[in-house]
Structure formats: C-alpha cells, structure tokens
Amino acid sequence: MRNIELKSTLFGALALLSLAAGGCMMQVEATVPEVEITQHDLVFEGVPLSATLGDVSMSKSFSQKHQKLDLPDGLDTEVKALGVTLTAKGGIQDFDFIKALRLTMSDDVHAPVELIDYTRADGAPSTNVLEMEAKNPVNTLDQWKADSATFTVDLMGVLPPQEWKIDVSVRFSGKIKYKY
Q1: Which alpha helices (H) appear in the chain, and where do they start and end?
Q2: pTM of the prediction?
Q3: Domain hosting residue 136, numbered range
Q4: Using CA atoms, how far apart are residues 88 and 166, in angstroms rounded to an integer?
Q5: How far is the C-alpha of 37 from the C-alpha of 44, rounded, in Å?
Q6: In-domain check, residue 2
Q7: Is 174 part of a structural domain of the chain?
Q8: Any domain includes 75
Q9: Could you tell me which of 86, 160, 82, 169 has the C-alpha nearest to residue 127?
Q10: Higher-scoring residue by pLDDT: 26, 100
C-alpha cells in the first residue's frame, strides 16, 4: 500500500514539475561538418569559332555515387551546398572567359536544385581557381536519399577554342534536429 502511495506521489510531482516548466520540449541539434565532393578532370569540348560567335552556352553533366542517406523518422534534417570551387586543370590558364555559370544537382526522382548561380563581376581578377559561395543555400536532403546524384554545369561566355578540363568541388554541410 505504501509503495502505491509513493508511486502516486512521484507521478504527481513529475506532473507538477512538467507543468511548472511550461510543457517545454527538449531539443537536440547537431551540425554535420563540411563534406567536399570533387569531380576530377571534367572535360569540355572546345568551340573553334568562339571568337567569331561571341558568347555561347555549354552544359556538362557528371554523376557521383554516394551512400544513400537513410535517416530514421522524427529527425528534422537539412543538407546544404555552401559553395563550389572550379580549378583549371588543362587547356586554359584562367576562368576569365566565363560570364555566367549555374550548377544544379538532381537524383532522377526529384526536380533538380540549383546550387550556384554565378555571374562574373566586371573587373574581377583573373584566377585559375574560381571560388563561388552559395548566396541562398537550398536543402538538398532529398537528392542525398538516392545512391547517386547528377550535377550539371551550365556556363556561358566566349568559350576556349580548344578542349579544356577542370576539377569541380562542391562543399556541403548539414544540421540534424530531434525534438522530444
């Protein structure tokens, strides 16, 4: 009998404590460190008459295999692209010829998401490593739930007349929240 009274008292105390705390829920949040994926030696065809034609557009896609992100229910998760870096690897000295560049990510299930939309500023310095920060990072979690992703580089400018190649690196980071 005394055991039942003790349990009732403990239950009542916990209920009052819960009400006194305003019914607050606990939340745990973790930031996932930056992860960088790189496509090495992505080759672009040259445009022989580019100087005569002026600005032209070109697209190039590549796929990356990755482990499917399979998370338990109840988590509020986001994975965002923080930035993209292009590194000249052959056939070009710098990226002065790029006037605009767009990079998207898709998984063959969901609509592609835009990771970068870059426009070269007038008077920007010459560089063989072009670093672009995401202005408004979007959540790419759905694209990580498949075992591969397709990245598409769309660029525009007076493109080189010869074949050229670059490395494309994309930096991602994430957050995981759990409320209970």
Answers
A1: 2-20, 50-53, 141-144
A2: 0.78
A3: 25-179
A4: 5
A5: 19
A6: no
A7: yes
A8: yes
A9: 86
A10: 100
